């Protein structure tokens, strides 16, 4: 009798788990949406959603919470990718929230619209009656993430209470909510940054070019290299700009997302660099995330991503 062993690689196991999550949520909820920024994590989620429902199209729209302070390369990629797939794009605009008086824009040198995304996100969820929002959070980002469940409950005010999380036994998810409540769903919960890059290489996924080494005008603030080309970071006269060979480990609000010095211009070089680093992605590149675990947990309780 011939014996066959079916061994799955780590990426195959992670992929299968994420596809299962997508299918379960699509079956249980009425109006899911995938949060898509054009960044690497959301690009991987989009590929996983494609595989989950192939050959049918992705059965839900994607939504970008747009601060208005974006890297042009990322927005160009976002629009092109959505058009290629023929899916609906919902834009939750922070600028619209400012114009309508829903939020007040921060002032000063370190002003950022990153925190203002919460109101724009919750308003869009209420307007479109989304009951499940797929997000790209990973366990290795920061400690407060580890208190999340895969299906993470939010109350009628969009707030998260870590003491009120539902138990998750193996891959059994509690999807019961009442009108006005919703859940955040994290298909990448067991992935790491290195897993993301390995998957990008295996699937031959296109990424925005700023993820790879390029020459850019930047300036230094608090140990971060901030973008000097878009003008969103409010560079002071005592913060001289200079050219450097850099790349971005994450993409977000250009006012607070830092670049890292790097010569990694190919996928293999980036993966080698990520495998050797001991500094987390957010700790190295996000000015507003250099805070304590308790502070990050408070932000999430307010409805933050």
UniProtKB/TrEMBL annotation:
InterPro entries: PAPS_reduct_dom, Rossmann-like_a/b/a_fold, SO4_adenylTrfase_ssu, Sulfate_adenylyltrnsfr_sub2. It comes from the Bacteria. It is an enzyme of class 2 (transferase). Residues 32-258 form the Phosphoadenosine phosphosulphate reductase domain. Its EC number is 2.7.7.4. Residues 281-305 are annotated as: Disordered. One of its GO terms (molecular function) is ATP binding. One of its GO terms (biological process) is sulfate assimilation. Pfam families: PAPS_reduct (PF01507). Keywords: ATP-binding, Nucleotide-binding, Nucleotidyltransferase, Transferase. Belongs to the PAPS reductase family. CysD subfamily. Heterodimer composed of CysD, the smaller subunit, and CysNC. This is Sulfate adenylyltransferase subunit 2.
């Amino acid at each position: 009798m011939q014996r066959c062993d079916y061994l799955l690689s780590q990426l195959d196991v992670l992929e299968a788990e994420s596809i299962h999550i997508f299918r379960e949520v699509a079956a249980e909820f009425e109006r899911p949406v995938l949060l898509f920024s054009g960044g690497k994590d959301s690009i991987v989620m989009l590929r996983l959603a494609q595989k989950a429902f192939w050959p049918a199209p992705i059965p839900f729209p994607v939504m970008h919470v747009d601060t208005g302070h974006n890297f042009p390369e990322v927005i160009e990629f976002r629009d092109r990718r959505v058009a290629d797939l023929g899916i609906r794009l919902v834009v939750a605009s922070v600028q619209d929230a400012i114009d309508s008086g829903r939020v007040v824009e921060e002032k000063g040198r370190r002003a950022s619209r990153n925190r203002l995304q919460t109101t724009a996100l919750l308003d869009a969820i209420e307007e479109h009656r989304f009951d499940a929002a797929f997000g790209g959070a990973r366990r290795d980002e920061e400690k407060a993430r580890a208190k999340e469940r895969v299906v993470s409950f939010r109350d009628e005010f969009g707030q998260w209470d870590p003491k009120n999380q539902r138990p998750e036994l193996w891959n059994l998810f509690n999807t019961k909510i009442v009108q006005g409540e919703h859940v955040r769903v994290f298909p990448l919960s067991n992935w790491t940054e290195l897993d993301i890059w390995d998957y990008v290489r295996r699937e031959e996924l296109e990424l925005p070019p700023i993820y790879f080494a390029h020459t850019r005008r930047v300036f230094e603030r608090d140990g971060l290299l901030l973008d000097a080309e878009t003008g969103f970071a409010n560079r002071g006269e005592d913060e001289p700009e200079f050219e450097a060979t850099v790349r971005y480990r994450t993409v977000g609000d250009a006012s607070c997302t830092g670049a890292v010095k790097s010569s990694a211009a190919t996928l293999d070089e980036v993966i080698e660099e990520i495998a050797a680093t001991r500094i987390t992605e957010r700790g190295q590149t996000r000015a507003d995330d250099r805070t304590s675990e308790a502070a990050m947990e408070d932000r999430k309780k307010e409805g933050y991503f």
